[in-house]
Fold this sequence. Notes:
Blueprint: H1 2-20, H2 47-58, H3 69-83, H4 87-91, E1 98-99, E2 104-107, E3 116-119, H5 122-134, H6 158-171, H7 186-202, H8 207-218
Antiparallel strand pairs: 1-2, 2-3
Amino acid sequence: SNTVLRDVSAINAFLDFVIRKGGRAYKIPPKSLPKENRNFKAYIFSDNEIERMLYAADYAPLAGQNPARQHQLPVIFRILFNCGLRTSELLNLRVSDVDLKENTFMILDTKFHKNRLVPFSDSVSDTLKQYLEILPQSTDTPLFPSSHSSSKHGKYGNSWLQAQFRLLLRLAEIPYGGPGKGPRPHDIRHTFAVHCLNNWVHSGEDLTAALPVLSRYLGHN
Length: 221
């Protein structure tokens, strides 16, 4: 059923494009689809595990074929844990999308075809400044360019990020259950959302008022 749903999602996304361009299209109705098999439980990282993951990113072993990796991993995973971006949003960032004066990322044409500004913390800002001083780039280049000549548009792919995530899990001594069991890179986004909600509960915030803010920040509908 999940394979059918993935295929239909791709077809309907193309038909959405056709409709936006002024064409006519018959989209596959949701009521005709099988129910999604949702037996996966998200992994929520504890504060201690986040610290260990970031420590592992700071001291990951050198990669002879990719010397830039040692400078990129500390920034990449601080952004993911601090901002809750989708991995695709992070890998698509360009230098011009970073505003170090306002401490914001411009996330363009992402899922649901939305643009949004995502503020980031001083700790992310500090690592970004150090990174860009060490590896200066022009404004129209990817923020995290790949050194592999075969990479698409000079950017890393999700498989590369998955491999780095698995490396950090191993260095941080966090068990990996295997494919379909996690933890997965997307669980960092789940962790961000859960920690936001938890902090709001402890500070006495009204969650009914705060949830739309979190939804907008994450780029949800």
